[in-house]
Amino acid sequence: MNISAVQVSKSLIELLRSDSKTVVLTGAGISAESGVPTFRGKDGLWNKFDPRELATFSAFMANPKLVWEWYQFRRDLIDKVMPNQGHIALAEMEKSLKQLRIVTQNVDNLHQRAGSRGVIELHGNIARNKCVNCSAPIAEREIDPDNIPLCECGGKIRPDIVWFGEPLPVEAIETAQQESASAELFFSIGTSAEVYPAADLPRIAKRAGAYLVEINPDPTAITPYADEVFALPAGEALPQIWQCAVGHSN
Ligand code: BJW
Ligand code: ZN
């Protein structure tokens, strides 16, 4: 049996044990322990690659081959990795906490692969494609960057990802904002909270009275507002927090 090393407050244990309305916002950090690189920070993708050349619509139209090479490389990487203890703990929590909702900025599908249901995807999904003109979904797994397939309407196929300057899927962001505004407990996990509008969700929840918990080894813009901070990797903190809640006898 594991001896818990993290200190979990009584308030958090009570909120978890009473099945409070809970929203979990995740970012790239939750998948770091699976081997998926984050974006910012010293080992982040944006430290090695320029987002303006890869993650905007104009970059895609200017150089679709380069952008598809980048996404095919990321797809291949994500196909090889597995959900980690953090994803698995959240899927476990979701089985007991009927009011828990995961909102992710990640495009890697790892929450779903760990067994989470009803995940709100704010920034799309790297496994899907759509047409640049009519947005029709197009089910091609392998895209040859030298020979990018076309939609029936003649438009190029692009990854179904939200690039900088593009609007988020309306239903996803509106639902996430509503859920955050009525949450009693909000977890911000593995996100630098630098990209909007996702970065507003913890603040929306806090303003509406939610208890705000952050799990991140490094401080972020959210840290000063948080009621409780676990400065640890998510794959270490989450199973221990959950074990404290379910194992607590009074
Ligand atoms: C761990 C860990 C472990 C590590 N455990 N933790 C000024 C200029 C230009 C634009 C803007 C501007 N001000 C605002 C904007 C808008 C812009 C924006 O926010 N820019 C800011 C960067 C300034 N936002 C947008 O453009 C959005 N759209 C929009 O606003 O539309 C408006 C509109 C309306 C109507 C019409 C038209 C437009 C879209 C944002 C899309 C974001 N897309 C990306 C890339 C997708 C492509 C791809 O995947 O290839 O999404 S950017 C990238 O950042 C990715 C992520 O989802 C997102 C968030 O990053 P995340 O998840 O927080 O990761 P990191 O790396 O930042 O942080 C990881 C954290 O984990 C760190 O804190 C670590 O410490 C931690 N960590 N190990 C726990 N084991
Ligand atoms: Zn089309």
Write structural notes for this entry.
The protein is of the alpha/beta class. Helices cover 37% and strands 16% of the residues. It contains 11 helices and 9 strands. The protein has helices at 10-17, 29-32, 45-48, 51-54, 57-62, 64-80, 85-96, 110-114, 170-181, 201-207, 234-247; strands at residues 22-26, 100-104, 120-121, 124-131, 137-138, 157-161, 185-189, 211-215, 228-230. The strands form 2 sheets. Strands 3-2-1-7-8-9 form a 6-stranded parallel beta sheet, sandwiched between helices. A 3-stranded antiparallel beta sheet has the order 5-4-6, with helices on one face. The longest helix has 17 residues, at 64-80. The radius of gyration is 19 Å and the shape is elongated. The mean pLDDT is 94. Residues 131, 133-134, 136, 151, 153, 155 line the site of zinc ion (ZN).
Offer a concise description of the structure.
This protein is α/β, with parallel strands linked by helices and 250 residues long. The protein has helices at 10-17, 29-32, 45-48, 51-54, 57-62, 64-80, 85-96, 110-114, 170-181, 201-207, 234-247, and strands spanning 22-26, 100-104, 120-121, 124-131, 137-138, 157-161, 185-189, 211-215, 228-230.
